[in-house]
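Task: sequence design from structure.
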């Protein structure tokens, strides 16, 4: 059914699963459609993708036509669950993401590209994790929250506000700069400007930082959440 992919015989692949090539679907993984999956992903073992979203207001809603989209080159590790949307068109995972063990990715979540989510993280519904963010072990993220691009959330955090781009959020401490992301993504040329933006609330000047901040501000405003 899905030529060009390595799917363990113990897996359950439901109807309306459109898959690219080069994917490894490891033992006991369940994937239910409608879903589109790109190329070269590693999924499993014991991952569940495509169950009905955990919406407490309507826990038995009809999710048969609610779609999930997963890009390419992602790693989705064991015991992670990704739910169908309940209120928007799609639950989406972009490209080049590393989702570690035992994650809760609920309904209507959007995860962009190059994101790392560490073990035992629980995202709330409608959360949006932007490009290059890093969410530490055991963090819990309130529904509708926005984790800004290239930011870092400390392990064990209870995230109840939005985290601005390039910020390092450690509960009980002032925001600091996620210098690791600056180096990782080759943004050293604007590092001083990033530091001023995070630490001094300075207005971005370069086109690169302006674009990053504008994308975050649009989601931040729509979320209705406060900002750290």
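Answer:
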């Amino acid at each position: 059914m899905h030529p060009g992919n390595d799917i363990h015989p113990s897996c359950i692949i439901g109807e309306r699963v459109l898959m690219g090539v080069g994917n490894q679907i490891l033992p006991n993984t369940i994937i239910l459609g409608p879903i589109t999956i790109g190329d070269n992903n590693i999924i499993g073992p014991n991952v569940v993708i495509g169950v009905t979203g955990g919406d407490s207001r309507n826990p038995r809603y009809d999710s048969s036509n609610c779609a999930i989209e997963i890009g390419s080159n992602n790693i989705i590790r064991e015991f992670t669950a990704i739910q169908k949307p309940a209120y928007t068109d799609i639950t989406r995972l972009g490209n080049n993401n590393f989702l570690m063990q035992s994650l809760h990715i609920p309904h209507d979540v959007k995860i962009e590209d190059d994101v790392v989510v560490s073990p035992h993280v629980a995202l709330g519904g409608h959360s949006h994790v932007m490009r290059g963010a890093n969410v530490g072990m055991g963090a819990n993220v309130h529904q509708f929250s926005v984790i800004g691009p290239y930011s870092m959330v400390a392990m064990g955090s209870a995230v109840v506000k939005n985290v601005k781009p390039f910020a390092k959020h450690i509960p009980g401490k002032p925001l600091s700069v996620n210098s690791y992301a600056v180096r990782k993504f080759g943004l050293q040329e604007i590092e001083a400007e990033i530091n001023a933006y995070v630490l001094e609330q300075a207005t971005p000047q370069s086109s690169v930082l302006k674009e990053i901040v504008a994308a975050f501000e649009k989601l931040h405003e729509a979320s209705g959440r406060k900002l750290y």
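The mean pLDDT is 97.
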